[in-house]
């Protein structure tokens, strides 16, 4: 294939540079080799679908945080889908790692738009399922698989539904053996997928399955490397609603945030909570307190490690799921400020969650809060 470099249009060169400087790191949070920053742009030079996906994502982000024309993104997006969708039935094509990368970049575009109906994301499921047996092969395919799985977790949280790709057959390292921080982060991300399937799937919510998930969660926290320990921590006080938790890498923040997401889900879906009787009210109160504590930690981690937008997205997932449990106005306003910061500074659509919480909290003017 003839490389696209040098690009003929200044605007397209600007979009490519914007992707490398502002967006690639969002995909590479758990990738020490930084495939989306270093490899994907070079592959895009010989893969028009991947190139258009990058242009579409950059243009959309620029339009959401600045005054860039939003129709530019639509044009590249449609061009991309026109060629990608007819290929989804071809087994050889869906093993193409360049197209998998294009698919997860389009998935990001749809996420920041707040397209919770999963337009093309059905395509992501097809690609993810095809990669399941190759997650230990490394390279761009593995990197894109993990991005796609985190996107799938986001959609499952937003829609309170199960995870679509089946993970039993993946060659995923679920051990507690010594490994790089990125592998440790991915281990808890996989547990989050397993827990979502337990909570929202059609299967039986048995004590045995619950205990296995809970044991793994405890084990991960017990055996995780020292690098996951904050270099600074300060509890919330009169001046600060959320605790401060400073960590030194994107992978460790991603890991710890998913650990707290798992705790929220396991606490909310605990089959051991009595349905009736003298202990039920106390158990529900403790459940409520535990969930709110984890939400505070997640928000504190985002604000304390604020150079990485996905940290805010993960916090927003927890806020959307459990924000209505907060009754104090100061806490409600702090949660709303995280949603607004995510929307205006990082271009991520949080208006649905904002409207839902304003109504749940009884804020008088739902439109203006």
UniProtKB/TrEMBL annotation:
<dbReference type="Pfam" id="PF11951">
    <property type="entry name" value="Fungal_trans_2"/>
</dbReference>
<dbReference type="GO" id="GO:0005634">
    <property type="term" value="C:nucleus"/>
</dbReference>
<dbReference type="GO" id="GO:0003700">
    <property type="term" value="F:DNA-binding transcription factor activity"/>
</dbReference>
<dbReference type="InterPro" id="IPR021858">
    <property type="entry name" value="Fun_TF"/>
</dbReference>
<dbReference type="GO" id="GO:0000976">
    <property type="term" value="F:transcription cis-regulatory region binding"/>
</dbReference>
<protein>
    <recommendedName>
        <fullName>ARCA-like protein</fullName>
    </recommendedName>
</protein>
<dbReference type="GO" id="GO:0045944">
    <property type="term" value="P:positive regulation of transcription by RNA polymerase II"/>
</dbReference>
<keyword id="KW-0539">Nucleus</keyword>
